[in-house]
Amino acid sequence: MSGLVNKDQADEMTVEGFAFSPLKCLLTVFTVVLTGGLFLILLTWRADIKLNCVYTKVPLKEAKKVLLKDKFEQIFEEDVVCNPSGDFSNNATPICSFFINKKIKYVWDSGARTFVKLKNVDEFMKQSDFHKCKEGLGQLTVTDRLHEYGPNLIKISVPPVLYLVFHEALNPFYLFQAYTVILWSIQMYWKFAVIIAITSVLSVTASVWETRKQNRNLRDKMKSESSVSVLRNGAQTELSSVALVPGDVILLPTTGGVMMECDAVLVEGTCVVNESMLTGESIPITKISIPDEDTIHFAYDLQRQHVVFCGTEILQGKAQEGHFIKAVVIRTGFMTTKGELVRAILFPPPLDFQFHSDFLKSIYVFLSLGLIGMAYSLYMWISNGGTIQECLLNSLDILTFVVPPILPAALTANNAFAQKRLQKMEIFCLHSNHICLCGGIDVVAFDKTGTLTEGNLDLAGVCESKNANFQETQADPTLLALDSRLIQAMATCHSLIELKGELTGNPLDVKLFDAIEWELKEQHNMGINPDYGMATPTLVSPPKGSRNGSGHIKTAPSNLEIAILKTYPFDSAVQRMTTVTKKKGAQQFDVYIKGAPEKIASTCKPETIPTDFSSTLMWYTKQGLRVIAAAHKPLNANYKWKEVDDLTRSDLEQKADFLGLIIMQNLVKAETYAAIKELHEADINTVMVTGDNILTAISVGRDCDLVKPDQTIIRVEAELSPNTYTPSLNVAYMLEENEKSNIVHDSNFIKSVQEKNYVFACDGKTFGLIRNNDKALLDRIVQRGKIFARMLPEQKIHLIECMKDLGRQVIMCGDGCNDCGALKTAHAGISLSMAEASVAAPFTSRNVHIGCVPYLIREGRATMVSAFASFKFGVAFCFTQLIAVLMIFYIGTEPSDNQYLVVDIGLAALPIIMIGNCGPHEILIKQKPMRHLLSFLPLFSVISFLFFQTLGYVGVWFYVQMQSWFVPYKFEPGLWPPNPSYEQTCIFLLSCCAAVVAAIVFSKGSPYRKPLLTNGIMAVWTIAAVAATIFMSLYESQDFAERLNFKIPPTVSMQSGSSSFRVTTPTTTTTSSQNKKTPTSSHPNEIQGGVATQIRHASREVTRNIKNRWSAGSPQQEEEHHLLGATETPTVTPRPQRAAQTDKNTLPPSYSLSSIDDATPSSSQLQRVINNTLLPAHSHESKMLSSWDQHQQAQPQTQHLSGSTAATGLLGSSADKKETIC
């Protein structure tokens, strides 16, 4: 029922088989209906849940669908296609069923009882098999292979708009946004709901547009189709490249200018190609035909010198006969090297960024807290007597507080800001998500040549060997005799071509050929050269006539000319190159070999190698010089060209004569010293990974201070013991000063140097042996290793993987030469080559030196800290608002819409986005930023902030309630907006302060970012937010207070239009009639507590006037007596006040003046006046006020009561508001 595919490979996956189950499908449909469609959303999110709910597990052979899970826990659902026709694969096994995952076809293997990746035809072929295919395929075979492998097309489909919209809309983030918009719309909070809806629509639209744009661009760049000459049934025909199948024989013109549409092995002729798209190498690469050997199996990865890859351009070719080069197609479509590159772009491995996983974990915690808050909210609203709508909506609204909805956009903005800053430094980033990974870097691996040192090598001299003795080193090789075998090796052992009138090829070969001042002439399709009796594609010779070689006049012989007949290009696997040549007029063929001194010496006859070879080589390499050796082998004079051409490379190279050493100087770049120093000061480890000699690498490492002066280098060498049934690993450790003395024979020595200042150096051979035989030792070597020399491209990848397995975060920096695999494998790869190296590396620097590395790390740290800051601010803001809302839910009120707008738009949206717009700090410090979001310090900073903010809320809550002017809030069900309250007003203002403080506190600059003031927009917002918060707290406009639903304490003066009311401290007022002081007390300003409260205050002023007039025998007593006996009218019951402030006694509908003692109304009678004059409907208020004005006109008073006028004005201004609330 389950199994493994790609077992023991990097893309190993588990596979499970499923078949449709009608019963499960019916139950799933029923569940979807019961949950209102919510369960359907879950099914679209997780393919594993969907398959387990709708399908049943079956054996893989019977499966109709398969569920795949890779090592990154990514899940894929694929359809199994049955093939009843039983087509045969290349290994003669009928293909019963198959599925396609990540553009690769997997077929059922009955022997392995699982699905296996479709095999390429070259995996079963020997080298001689390619030469048997020269006549091409038959039509029947073509049909079968076309059905098996599909068309030769790298097809990148652009998803439809509706599919992308649906896919984006089902993203949990947008579903949460939809939940928020619907809920707020029901609550009539439409202003911010519309903003969120518009933002979401724009975001989905932008995402869909960007996705389609990227897919279209990739499709247009990778889609390629051309006309190809193909041999079918022995006849040449022109076909579209889409119709090519593995096994086809294609004809490539020698004129070049052809783009390869498949991977093919050369069987006749040679060609020069440009592989910059695949490898970053901008120099031409020579490809040669594969030898016709029936004992050697073809190895795709090891014999790349015979393979012309898809996506490369043929610059020119050399045919054995005619005008075409023959090649056999071995891979098509996504199975080619170019297809693998496109698949890596389409299906990249997920980034190992701990912040993202911690963020998702925190969301689960926040949602759990939100459910608790919902339960509390539901309980409080039910307890306060809220309506069903209030209880339900306000409880559901709690979830909108616990998840910062704009945080994903903020993280994207952080990366965009960082990417823009990198572009200003001429560092280009293809994947902005890699920027954060640079923040936790603790190891930087450098290539040597072209990265730490100058890319162009200079010839320092040549040291010729004669009779097994080194001669004096010559700085100018033109001083050597023209017939010197060493000079002739420099002239012929290369793969240079003449392109547009200039020599093109490996820069090392160009430098050597220019140094000897020879000439190169190419003869394409010239037929047989009579001077040699064969075709001579390339001829080299010294310039004819006299030349000046360092002051010596030399004349080249007219007959000195050498033809380069066959070339084995430089192969990093064997670290050498070989050519077969023939001198004009000579009877024999000559072989010249050039490469690494150790490899060349291993092919030479021992008697030709100088006895001081090792010491001389060590002396040069310790000076930091790059040393190349050369050798020569004369072939038997009786050999014909056919016999020479049939010889294997090994036969050509063995038992050669050692010629000498070629010394190249590779200076360290000036920028290297400062960059290495800055990295070391920041406690970031630096490592050199190079293909050069280990002694040269150590010398350069010492020179540029990559190896510190106080560090001792221990060279590690390993070899397998051959005399045992189970080979054992012998490891030797040698000090740098004495390369031949083994300081320890036991690998346990490594443990004793853990606390000492030792570092290790090893070559690729030793690294490979240790990696395959001693994993524990490998970890210790990698942990303390500094120099890794003679490393093959795949070994560089293995080294980076070992570092990652040890928990290190690694940057790989190279110039694109043989570094592409390592650049892709590292957390962050930096290419110093602009020649298409960006395809392999996330980062590309236009400045070709390592000065970009410290800046990129500083930028990564700043971006990582910005991501943490955005998260902490978002969480702090949301939870301060949540705590504030839960507190005011206790009394049955909530913020108004305008209050929500102020905090959501004015105080939250901009800072969470712009908080990451701070550049990196100028200094790269030792302390690295936190990588884990859920570690102690980030959590403590947020929790402590919320704790102190909660204390502030609680303190303000009880402080307000202790004031003498405090009026308790009374909940009125169904009222919107709710009546203002002292508690809600103060809590809201404090929450605004908290938002501003959080933005400032979490925008910390040093030591990873620049100060807040350098972030212009954020600095302006901070000033504006502080000013706005102070303004809201102190502004004295009644209209402003009503808009924000504030209730202002009585220490604040309120003014509105022509009416005014001002609260003062207790004073005394003198009446003119009795010439005595009457105490006049001040009452709370209750304007913001509702109109009824304002009326009660005014009523007390009117009562005081009535008392004064009656005591003075006012003529208006009769009218007031009539008012006291007025019929009772309906009144509005004000909110309950404290008992000391309101007299609840009422009078019967009728009474007489005799019941009033001393002609002065009692408190109950005065209350009756208030109830009948101040609290009736609007028409009755107008009548009372009119009578009052008539009374004042008929009996003008000489006395002035400070407050009666204010009370009268207040009544007039409050009528409309009272009527509204009633």
From TrEMBL:
GO cellular component: membrane
Enzyme class: translocase
GO MF annotation terms: ATP binding; ATP hydrolysis activity; ATPase-coupled monoatomic cation transmembrane transporter activity; metal ion binding; P-type transmembrane transporter activity; polyamine transmembrane transporter activity
Compositionally biased region (Polar residues): 1128-1164
EC number, as in UniProt: 7.2.2.-
Keyword Nucleotide-binding: yes
Domain P-type ATPase A: 225-345
Start and end residues of each stretch annotated as Disordered: 1053-1092, 1107-1164, 1181-1222
Transmembrane segments: 20-43, 161-182, 188-209, 363-382, 398-417, 871-892, 898-915, 936-960, 980-1001, 1013-1035
Principal location: membrane
Keywords: ATP-binding, Magnesium, Membrane, Metal-binding, Nucleotide-binding, Phosphoprotein, Translocase, Transmembrane, Transmembrane helix
Start and end residues of each P5B-type ATPase N-terminal domain: 10-84
Subcellular location: Membrane
Any one GO BP annotation for this protein: intracellular calcium ion homeostasis
PROSITE patterns: ATPASE_E1_E2
Cross-referenced InterPro entries: ATPase_P-typ_cyto_dom_N, ATPase_P-typ_P_site, ATPase_P-typ_TM_dom_sf, ATPase_P-typ_transduc_dom_A_sf, ATPase_P-type_domA, HAD-like_sf, HAD_sf, P-type_TPase_V
Membrane topology summary: Multi-pass membrane protein
Biased composition regions of type Low complexity, renumbered to the chain: 1058-1082, 1190-1199
Pfam families from the UniProt entry: Cation_ATPase, E1-E2_ATPase, P5-ATPase
Reaction catalysed by this enzyme: ATP + H2O = ADP + phosphate + H(+)
UniProt family annotation: Belongs to the cation transport ATPase (P-type) (TC 3.A.3) family. Type V subfamily.
Protein name (database record): Cation-transporting ATPase
Species of origin: Tigriopus californicus (Marine copepod)
